[in-house]
Amino acid sequence: MTQTRIQPRPRTPQSDADASTISGGGPTTAMRVIVPLQGVVQGRGGLVLGSVIPCALFYLLQFYLKRRHRPGPTPTTPPPTLPEAAEGSPPPVHRVQTRSTISPRGSNGQAHVSYRANSIAKQIDTPYYIGLKKASVDPYDEENNPDGFFQLGLAENLLCVDLVQDWIVANAKNSIVGGDLSISGIATYQPSDGLMELKVAVAGFMSRVMERSASFIPSQMILTAGAASAIEMLSFCLADAGNAFLVPSPYSPEDIKWRTGVEIIPVPCRSTDGFSLSITALDRAFTQAKKRGLKVCGIIISNPSNPVGNLLNRETLYSLLDFATENNIHIISNEILAGYSCESEEFVSLVEIIDSEDFDRNRVHIVYGLSKDLSLIGVGMGVIYSFNENVLSASKKLTRFASISAPTQHLLISMLSDTNFVDKFIKTNRERLHRICSEFVVGLKRLGIECVKSNAGFYCWADMRWLICSYSEKGERKLWDKLLNVAKVNVTPGSSCHCIEPGWFRCCFTMLTEKDIPVVMERIAKVSEVCKSHS
Amino acid sequence: MTQTSPLRDPEDETRRPVSPTGGRTGMRLIVPLQGVVQGRGGLILGSLIPCALFYFLQFYLKRHRSPPPPASPSSSNLPELARTSSRSNLTSRGSMGQARVSSRASSIAKPNDSPYYIGLDRASEDAYDELENPNGVIQLGLSENRLSLDLIEQWLSRNLNGSILGGGGGGFEYEWNRDAMAGFMSQIMGRAVSLNPSQLVLTSGATPAIEILCFCLAADPGHAFLIPTPYYPGFDRDVRWRTGVELIPVHCRSSDNFTLSITALDQAYNQVRKRGQKVRGLLLSNPSNPVGSILTRETLYNLLDFARDKNIHIISDEIFAGSIYGSEEFVSMAEILDSEDVDRNRVHIVYGLSKDLSLPGFRVGAIYSWNEHVLTASKQLTRFCSISAPTQRLLIPMLSDTRFTQEYIETNRKRIQSMYDLFVAGLEQLGIKCVKSSGGLYCWADMRELIRPYNEKGELDLWDKLLNIAKINVTPGSACHCIEPGWFRCCFTTLSKKDIPLVIERIRKVVETCNLPLKMPTSGGFQS
């Protein structure tokens, strides 16, 4: 934008020639001026306004461009300076003379960590993580630490650890270095997306656990170090930073937003519907997100659902697929708890639906893991099962950041191929789970605490709405605090699971033994009586 | 952007009078583009020009949006809707759409075009085996150490039993392993220094360790790290793919023996600043990969000063710290920070067991940092790359067995040294010299005399010949972002001693075909 300031004055031949070179036709007597904003810049204030207005316009344009270029969180909150820096004086420079040629401007500056790192570090202060930490530092033990914490916040299954450990003690050595396997098979570089033998074994195990016609093709499988990284990888592949996923709430408090930069739009499910997912709510959330200018790339469901424990039935799965096709979005189905359904209701995998009818398979991605189904705590193996070639090849390359160690892979190959063991494990695990589940739910019922009827998972979703003093998130937080610090029981409050109704709590019972249950109930009773007397 | 035309000479003044005193008779007009829109064509131009400007603005904005993801390859076969009628109430608008993956995923999913990965794939598909595949490709591109695997195997067969793996439990593996790892690292790099286990975060390999650090240190995409070239080709993936951090090469040259100079760093830093980017840190590998040189104490001090001066972080990748041979001593950043009271918050060390303990299959890496915030955030992020419990249970006794580790480190060093001597001597017979290196599992070979033309294309031609005629996979300097053509990284630790004559023989074939009269001037500093 060039601004030529021309002041009309009696023509000289020179100025005429000048004008004609620019406009193509020289005016003779009165100038014809057709200029935007002419009225404004004319007159006395002309010089000032004439330069201020273009400047302002340009400034706004620059401002606009700048804002568009900074995706994600704008650094409105500057990274907090480190605590040590705030307290003490800057570290004294004990350097020899020759080295102290440091310019003064730099020497006081603190090395800042990124905005992302700060927000991740802050997560530790949410109730979910506080509770987990407290209960893991000082765990209950009947003999050694009877005043310790009960861990009902961690979705891990200790019911059949004895079976797994017995197997490992008996077979580990052979499966890792035994047989024809040499040291170079476990020590050297292996394909980062998992050994083919393990994929075959996992595919077999998955079909067995899911019990039904669903079959899994090993070449469509990517193995990662844990289901958390599997979900993170998928969301990285399906959405760019700033794009969004619809997630029915309440959902598991673990977070995919940290590194991927994707947004999560909760689709609230309510207690009046038994926390089941409605397509209407999905549709509404989708439209709202679109109005806000967010691009929705997919839905993340967990089936069985994570805090509530209900299963998605066949009809809902069909409607979900229709919804996804209609809006051209992906579905990530987290089926990590598939092995924990009761006999009364059947678990239907999305793969089964896809197999039975001709849907667009490219948009369906399954996440699975062994840590829950096989109570292999700490083994951390996740599975991405996808029909989409692009997703498979991108996530295969991304597994360099989350690959499973070779000894563990060999251990798993022989464990999963041992069909006797697998059958025994699945059967025993289911029996023990049912027993402890019914005992726990009955125990809570005696205290007047009802649970949503859950068909799967290893937790129950307990309704403590009548125990919270103010029906709000604050009241819920207070009750959680009492349970943690007075009763010494760590449960996960609904607000951590993004539940919109206050007063719901997730209690995982698979870290308990049967004789722990009366103790837990007694402890909860203490708190509930105090709450009742107050209200 | 206003253009004021200063009064330079009288002629200029008469043509374009700017001063307000000039307007005596006519209207005073101070209008942008007045000259253009004046006159007969005024109406047309007056509306055309803003339109054109607007068009360009829109065009600009459009180009700066993220590129649209390419259509998925299977777009030809549209989904057929063979559904029962009750379900086929789909709107027609959606049913045709293909599910698209994100643009960042499709850029990752693209096939490899770097010679580094092409060579690695070729060599692993058609691997040389003395008996079964004598015409296979010999792998000199993967920095993996197979010289001392027998020691590991012995240890495992002596000590591994079911109770190690099955017993314990309770989730304490991580803490125990961290203590064991800190002990092992101190043994390798600390000397007088002992590393504090609480400053250590374990990850599943050094690759995620580097990625996590990049996430923690660089906030927004567009932030940059300085990195001395030539560098390890994998950094392009580790650093760039998911974090969006840029790598700014700081070129080191053969005339300086590929050593890092602070002047070059400073220059690169200022250039980046001028371009409006923000430098957040410096990524070093010490011993350097691919050259194999060691940063001296003096250089480390200078680097620390530089980092403090510019207020940036230093990531020091010391994954080869234990694979040192020769007379030069290795100095870890940890040692320097321990001895002097410098600003420790900005230094982060990456380590792993893949090279020094020859256990890349175990996927064990570590971040050692003095910065509380980085430690907290990284620990949270290890949820995505945790080491599995059985592996940790296996490692705890192995790393705690200091007699074994001591013996292993010493034997391993000796074996690398003798392999290095053999390999370099073999290359020398062919007239190929190597930069004198003191660490790592590779040598940096000067084949400038063999390439024609003297540019990247000539280098890739030679690489291609080596791969396809000689069946040897080496890493060309261009894959390591080396600014001078004609350098190659050869990893010799995947070989056994009896393979060396064969490798040299195979290279000789290619060298003879490249028999060029042209002699490159060689600079000093190479091993004679």
Automatic annotation (TrEMBL), chain A:
InterPro entries from the UniProt entry: Aminotransferase_I/II_large, Ethylene_sulfur-biosynth, PyrdxlP-dep_Trfase, PyrdxlP-dep_Trfase_major, PyrdxlP-dep_Trfase_small
Alphabetized UniProt keyword annotations: Membrane, Pyridoxal phosphate, Transmembrane, Transmembrane helix
Positions with biased composition (Polar residues): 1-22, 98-110
Pfam families: Aminotran_1_2
Record domain Aminotransferase class I/classII large: where: 152-524
CDD domains linked: AAT_like
Cleavable signal peptide: none
Annotated spans, Disordered: 1-27, 71-110
One term of GO molecular function: aromatic-amino-acid transaminase activity
GO biological process entries: amino acid metabolic process
Superkingdom of the source species: Eukaryota
Transmembrane segment boundaries: 46-65
Composition bias type Pro residues, residue spans: 72-82
PANTHER family xrefs: AMINOTRANSFERASE ACS10-RELATED (PTHR43795:SF85), BIFUNCTIONAL ASPARTATE AMINOTRANSFERASE AND GLUTAMATE/ASPARTATE-PREPHENATE AMINOTRANSFERASE-RELATED (PTHR43795)
Protein name: ACC synthase 10
Organism of derivation: Actinidia rufa
UniProtKB/TrEMBL annotation, chain B:
Entry-linked Gene3D superfamilies: Aspartate Aminotransferase, domain 1, Type I PLP-dependent aspartate aminotransferase-like (Major domain)
Gene source species: Actinidia rufa
Compositionally biased intervals (Polar residues): 83-106
Any GO MF annotation of the entry: pyridoxal phosphate binding
Alphabetical list of InterPro entries matching this protein: Aminotransferase_I/II_large (IPR004839), Ethylene_sulfur-biosynth (IPR050478), NHTrfase_class1_PyrdxlP-BS (IPR004838), PyrdxlP-dep_Trfase (IPR015424), PyrdxlP-dep_Trfase_major (IPR015421), PyrdxlP-dep_Trfase_small (IPR015422)
Pfam family, one: Aminotran_1_2
Family: Belongs to the class-I pyridoxal-phosphate-dependent aminotransferase family.
Keywords: Pyridoxal phosphate
Record-annotated Aminotransferase class I/classII large domain positions: 139-507
Protein name (Swiss-Prot/TrEMBL): 1-amino-cyclopropane-1-carboxylate synthase 12
Region of interest: Disordered: 1-26, 66-109
